[in-house]
Each structure stands twice: as structure tokens, then as C-alpha cells.
Amino acid sequence: MRVTKVIGAFMVLGLIVCLTPFTPSALAAGSSTTELSANYLTIPGGESIARIMVENKDSKAHHYNLEATGLPEGFKAYFTLQGKGIKGLDLSASEKRIAELHLNTPLKATQDYGLIKVKSSRDDGLETLMSVSFTVNHDFSLEITNQIKKLETLNGKSLSFDIAVTNTGNKELKDLGLKAELPYKWTLDKLTPEKLSLKPGENGAFRVTISIPPSQGSGNSILKIKSFNGAVASQEISIPVTVTATAGYAWWVIGLVLVVGIVTIIYFRKNVRR
Amino acid sequence: MNATWIIARKEITDALKNKLFLIILGMLLILTVVSVVLGAYQVRVALDNYTNAIEFLKSLGKTELPPMPNLNPISASKGFVNYIGMLGALLAMILGNYAIVKERRSGTLKLILSRKVFRDTLLNGKLLGNLTLFAGISLLAAAITFISVGAIGNVALSAGDAARMGLFFLMSFLYMAFFLVLGITFAVMVGNGNKALLLTVIMWLVLAFVFPQIGNTMDMDNQLPGGFFASMGMTKDQQTKVLVNFKFYETLRDSIEEMSPTKHYERVSFALLNVKPGFEKNTPMEVLGLKWINVLGLTAPTIILWLIAYMGFLRREDIYQT
């Protein structure tokens, strides 16, 4: 009886180790047909990373194409290897490497649970499938709720606008900040408040002030903004900004043309046309 | 007006007999044809690749087909910007200089001005004749581009693209007009024709190469190979703090760049041709509206130089010297 309990405890422990997201799932894309499944927690608008081990059990080098199939509507997935996006990888004989599957969950996920298949296709046609399940956790969810269609400003000037955020999760979100990805040489002058706490269902707003350098040529640029804290991040919104050149330079040029024009008229009147 | 037009026609006839002008014009047209044909061919390759990919996907039974990539056929003319920047400007300066110097050297200036022709009429006629030539060159280059994109690129230009292309060639014409007037002005102001041409070329080098280069080399981030900020391992926040302290420096750098008509021509042309991203959704007139400063930067110096040429020519007594 005691032996059975010990064996049972080991089995449970083994299962927990296998299911933890930090354990690379084995996609033995060689002779093995072993499939392991792991469950990953993800949040609305967030990204979950599953580590996928791809192993070449053959005695020759092979190229493996990776593909995630069966994604529910709105979900997106891509693979990376050491931080770089990949669509496949090359493995020498008996080599194994860990790729990362990035699963992006939409803000309004159509389903809270799901199973996606990771398919590895070897260059000789051998295919291996691995299942990865996920659960959408609605405790933490954050959304940027105002959609700014377009902003217009002049170069060399400041631009202020509001970003409204809503806690759409079930738990309070503390220390929410705002991250703005700005075009080169644009500066974030002021963010009020710097941190924000929101109870479930509550709205808040950040006042953002940015500076556009005088050297910015007129044209269209994009601001990318998202709100975040240690537990959750909102979707990233893109705000188009149209920058028009200030008239300072133009006034100088037009003034100069007028001055030279007047001088020419006076010159012609004084010296007589000939 | 009649006298102006007679002088203008004479200018066109003289230019077409000028071997240097014809050689440079030939070079410009050959480069234009090569660059536009290559650009149009690239468009065709991209279009064929897309068509093949779609056919392959359809043969596999796929229903979700990728959207057509932005082929941007008008970018076939982007090489033309560089050729006009160099050869077009050179052509204009030579014609501008030649317009005055040839009359002075042959003694015909004295003859023309002894008739009932005002000095400003003479200048107007020379300007009109040469501008007509440059308008013809621009139209010819535009025709080559339109035909190449259609025949080789196999792409029909939309009305918006055609308008953008037309405006681009108008900007090219304005750019050449500036250097034509620069050539005429120096030829009027400086008695010696060779010295005038040398000074015009020096001015061109400063405006077309030195000023834009100063703008680039004075850029904070260009101070070290691979980027100053990246080399120093600075985060975006740290970069922001540094840049805040260099506002005056940035303004100075920008002001030097603004003095270059070449920079203005590049900016408005790249926006019209969609070479610079961010203008794809704008109409041609909206692009001009956004880039009006650059259009002004191209035209205002031409007007100022022309008025200076008028004043210089009116009172010069040594213009009869050969």
C-alpha cells in the first residue's frame, strides 16, 4: 500500500514537471513519435511562450519547417530561436534545439480553452505533431479604450493627447504604466500620472505629452502605445501622426523674395529700364 | 513678347547645336532609360512572383490568398532623382552660362542691345528658351517612364500614381530651372565666362553635396560607425534625455540642410514617388500640401537669383567686352 502511494506520488510529480510551461516540450522530429502535451496560461491581449524541443534522431542533417495549426479565431502564433523569428531550423545529426512558440491571445478571445498543433515537417517528408493546450485567464486583462484616429502637429512643437485604459479583468491592476514607441528623435516630455491603479471594470486616463524635433520633415509617422504592469499588458495601439512643417522657414524665404522684389522695382525705377 | 519669343527660339536652336549640351543630354537620357527600364523590370518580377504564388496556392485548393503586395510602380523613377541631381543640374548650369557667354564672346550681345530690345527682354527670352528645353527634357523622361512601366512592368498606373509621377517631373523641372538661373546669374555678374562657370559649379557642389552632407555628418547618431547611441549602449530613454539637450544643435543642422535645393528636391520627390514611407495613403495634392515648404525651397531661390540677375544686367557696362 505504501509502495503504491510512493509510486503514485512520483507519477504525479512527473506529470507536474511535464506540464509546467518552463519545461521544453519534446517534438522529437526524428524516428520517435512521442507526443507530449502541455497547458499554457495566457491572458487576453497577452502573449504566452511555449518552449518546443526539436530533435533530429536521424544520422543525417535535416531542415525542419515549423507550423502552428488549429489556432482559434484571432489567435496568432510564431516561432523564435534565440530571439530571432524563424519558420524552420536546421539540425545536424542527433542534434536537438529548443525553439519558442509565441502565442498571442486576442483581447476578446472567442474561446477560453483550446488545443493547437505544432507540426514539424522534415525535408524528407517526415512529419511530427505535438499538441499544446492553453487556457485564457481572465483575472488580468487591460484594454486601451479610446481609439485616436489621427493626430496633427507641427514640427518643433509639443503634442498632448489622452490614452484611456480600462481594467477588463477580474482583479485589481496596480502600478500601470504606459510605454510609447516614438519615431527617431521624438521625445516623451510628460506622462501624467506616471502610474495608475484600476479596480475591475474601472477606467483611467494617461495624459501624454511628446515633443517633435524641428528637424522632423513633414509627413506621416506612427506612434505605438501600450499600457502595462508586471502582470498584464494591453494591446498595442498605433496612432497616425501627421507632421506639418512650421511656417518659420517659409516666412523667412517669402520675406526675402519680397525684399529682393521691392529692391528690384526701386532699382529699375531709379536707373531707368534700358 | 515677340522679341522675347524670337530670342527664346534662337536659344533652343543654339542649344541643339551645342555639342557639350547634346553629350550631357544623351548621357542623362541613357541613364534615365536604363534606370527606368530596370525599375520597371523589377516591378514585373515582383508581379510575376505574386501571380505564380497565387496560382500555386489555388492549385493546392487554398482559399485564403495573400493580398497583392504594394508594387509601387512609380518608384521606377527613383534613380532619375539622382541623375537629375547631378547631370540635370550640370546641364542647366552649362546652358545658363552658355546663354550669356556665347553672346558676349561672339559680340552679338552688342548687336542685339543696339536694337529695340530691352536688357530684361533679352534675359527673359534666354530664360524662356532654356526653360522650354528643360520642359521638353522633363516631358521626354516622363514619356519614357510611362511607356516603360506599362510595357515592361506590365502595370497600368492608377490616376493617382500618374498624377504623382507628373508632379515629380514638375519638381525635376523646377530643380533644373534653379541651376539654369544660377548659371545665368553668375554669367551676368562675373565678367569672365570661365570664372563664372567655375563659380557656378563650386556653388552647385556646396548646395548639392556639402550642405546635405553637413546635415548628415552633424547628426548626433552618425558620429560613430554603427550609430552613436548603439555604440554607447544607450537605452531609448537615455537617447531621449541626450537629444533634449541638443535642440539648438539640431536646429542649426536643420537650417543648413534647408539651404540646399537638392535636399528639398529629394524630399518632395521621394514623398511623391513613395520611396519614403508614410505617404502611401495621401493623394498627390496632399503630398504637395505636406511638402509645400520643400516646393517653396525649390522655387524661392530661383526667383531671388533671377531678380539679382535683372539688377546686375541692367547697369553692367562691361557686358560688351569679349
Could you list the spans of chain B in which at least 5 consecutive residues all have pLDDT below 50? none
Largest interface, and how many residues on either side? A-B, 32 and 36 residues
Spans of chain A with pLDDT under 50 lasting ≥5 residues?
17-26, 28-37
CATH level 3 topology of the largest domain in chain A: Immunoglobulin-like
List keywords for this structure.
heterodimer; A: 274 residues; alpha+beta; Immunoglobulin-like; 2 domains; five-stranded mixed sheet; 2 helices; 19 strands; B: 322 residues; mainly alpha; 13 helices; 78% helix
Task: Describe, in plain words, how this protein is organized in 3D.
The complex is a heterodimer of chains A (274) and B (322). Chain A has 274 residues and is an alpha+beta fold. Helices cover 15% and strands 47% of the residues of chain A. Chain A has 2 domains: 13-136, Immunoglobulin-like (Sandwich); 142-247, Immunoglobulin-like, CATH 2.60.40. The termini of chain A are far apart. With 322 residues, chain B is an all-alpha fold. The mean pLDDT of chain B is 85. The chains are: A alpha+beta (274), B mainly alpha (322). Chains A and B meet through strand 18 and helix 2 of A and helix 9, helix 10 and helix 13 of B.
